């Protein structure tokens, strides 16, 4: 973890590992894909969309800085302020201008999980969800 709730991660890491580490610090990444076995670099190379993207944008929108390995082997840090054109084209760029090696990500405090409430006639039935359909007997 870095200051101000930011986290640095290697792009080889899987999101599951990153989330586990963030959770220990009471933080989380705001946008996750439905498959946490994917790599950080893999999803950032294609944009990275999840169920909260309609609210918080894509995963690439949460990246503060990135370390990029260029085709000539040179490693450079880029951000919106530093090497901004590289930064703009590296994220969701399918690896066309280089390989993402490390990133600094914005995180948010861990959210409590929501409660799913069942509504409708089956939810009010004393016999449960299958009541009225010949199930649950």
What attributes does this structure have?
5 helices; FAD-bd_PCMH_sub2; Uridine Diphospho-n-acetylenolpyruvylglucosamine Reductase, domain 3; disordered C terminus; FAD-linked_Oxidoreductases_BP; alpha+beta; Oxid_FAD_bind_N; single chain; 4-stranded antiparallel β-sheet; FAD-binding protein; 6 strands; oxidoreductase; 23% helix; two-stranded antiparallel sheet; 137 residues
Structure description:
By secondary structure, the protein is of the alpha+beta class. The protein has one domain (3-110): Uridine Diphospho-n-acetylenolpyruvylglucosamine Reductase, domain 3. It has five helices and six strands, in the order E-H-E-H-H-E-E-H-E-E-H. It has a four-stranded antiparallel sheet, covered by helices on one side. A hairpin with a 5-residue loop joins strand 3 and strand 4 (75-79). The protein is globular and about 60 Å long.
The parts where pLDDT drops under 50 for at least 5 residues are 129-137
Helix content: 10-25%
For this structure, what is the CATH class? Alpha Beta
Mean pLDDT value: 86
What can be said about the biggest beta sheet? 4 strands, antiparallel
- Find the count of extended strands (DSSP E, 2+ residues): 6
End-to-end Cα distance, whole Å, is 53 Å
Total DSSP helices = 5
Q: Which architecture per CATH?
A: 2-Layer Sandwich
What strand line-up does the widest sheet have? 1-5-3-4
Quick take:
By secondary structure, this protein is an alpha+beta fold.
């Amino acid at each position: 973890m870095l200051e101000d709730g930011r986290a640095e991660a290697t792009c080889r890491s899987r999101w599951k590992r990153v989330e586990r580490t963030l959770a220990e610090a009471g933080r989380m990444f705001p946008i996750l894909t439905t498959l946490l076995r994917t790599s950080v670099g893999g999803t950032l190379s294609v944009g990275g969309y999840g169920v909260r993207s309609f609210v918080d944008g894509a995963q690439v929108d949460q990246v503060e800085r990135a370390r990029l390995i260029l085709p000539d082997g040179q490693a450079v840090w880029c951000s919106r302020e530093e090497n901004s054109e590289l930064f703009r084209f590296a994220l969701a760029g399918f690896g066309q201008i280089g390989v993402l090696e490390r990133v600094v990500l914005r995180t948010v405090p861990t959210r409590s999980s929501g409660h799913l409430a069942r509504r409708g006639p089956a939810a009010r039935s004393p016999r449960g969800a299958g009541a009225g359909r010949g199930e649950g007997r």
